[in-house]
Design brief:
Rossmann fold, 9 helices, 48% helix, globular
């Protein structure tokens, strides 16, 4: 059965929605007849993404908002939430998906650490703190989906700031779900999306063709929807090379 939060005319907000998994999710939500807001940095890619989402939305451009926002800045997150509520009057699905990976070293540039932690971790925390109270107050079924990473669990060497940020997203989302299920009358649940190898602008590293081992963003979103409907908290995605069994061994 389809999760009640995905009912037609409900509203989904996807930050980091201009490309990759975020854009694939926004298009899938729109195709399910949800109204969709995508938020991302203000550039041509955001507006192109809005057109792509509108092309599959039941109500066309009328059911789609594209809002420029730097989700590492609390004032912009608050403005985003107000704009969505003023326009659509509700939020049923929040996908905290925005992520950056400029590369980092333990003794590397402070600016890289600030950017990664600001977007990948504070973006999730602030997005939740700003949007969740209104979602809870609606009294309807809702979803908060935070995009983590296997690097936040297995923490391989090479990019410590990214690992720290995604480990933080995991811990925060666990704490969030504990909080939500202990709030009287709350019908909102939190879920941690843990993608496998997905071919996105973040992971392309200059490649123009998808590696055979990688999933597409669309495959990842289809798996996410399936596991949300099954009630999974940890949405641990395989890819064309790594099975769940291998992931579980790595996690152990």
């Amino acid at each position: 059965m389809t999760h009640a939060a995905f009912s037609p005319s409900n509203v989904a907000v996807v930050n980091g929605g201009a490309s990759g998994i975020g854009l694939a999710a926004a298009k899938r939500f729109a195709a399910m007849d949800l109204k969709v807001c995508i938020a991302d940095l203000d550039n041509a890619r955001l507006h192109q993404a809005a057109e792509a989402v509108a092309a599959v939305a039941g109500g066309g451009a009328h059911d789609v908002l594209a809002i420029p926002a730097d989700i590492s800045r609390l004032d912009e997150v608050r403005k985003l939430e107000k704009t969505v509520r003023d326009h659509f009057h509700r939020v049923d699905v929040l996908m905290n998906n925005a992520g950056v990976q400029p590369g980092s070293q333990i003794f590397g540039p402070e600016a890289n650490w600030d950017k990664v932690i600001g977007v990948n971790l504070w973006g999730v925390i602030q997005g939740t703190q700003v949007f969740a109270p209104g979602m809870i107050a609606q009294g309807t079924r809702g979803l908060i989906i935070n995009t983590g990473s296997k690097q936040g669990i297995t923490t391989p060497p090479g990019d410590p700031a990214y690992n720290v940020s995604k480990a933080g997203v995991k811990v925060f989302t666990e704490a969030l779900q504990h909080e939500l299920r202990n709030v009287e009358g709350c019908r909102v649940s939190a879920h941690l999306l843990i993608p496998g190898f997905v071919f996105t602008p973040l992971s392309a590293h200059g490649r123009s063709e998808k590696p055979a081992a990688a999933w597409t963003p669309e495959q990842t979103v289809a798996f996410m929807i399936e596991r949300l409907e099954a009630g999974d908290f940890y949405i641990l995605c395989p890819d064309n090379e790594v099975t769940r069994e291998i992931d579980e061994k790595r996690i152990l």
